[in-house]
Amino acid sequence: MLTIKAQVFGESVVLLQSPTLATNTVETAEVEFTFDEEWDGFTKTAMFWGADDEEHSVEVIDNKAIIPREAMAEAGKMKFGVYGTNGSKRLVTAKTLYRIAEGAYVVNRN
Question: What structural domains and CATH numbers belong to the chain?
Answer without folding.
Answer: 2-101 (2.60.40.3350)
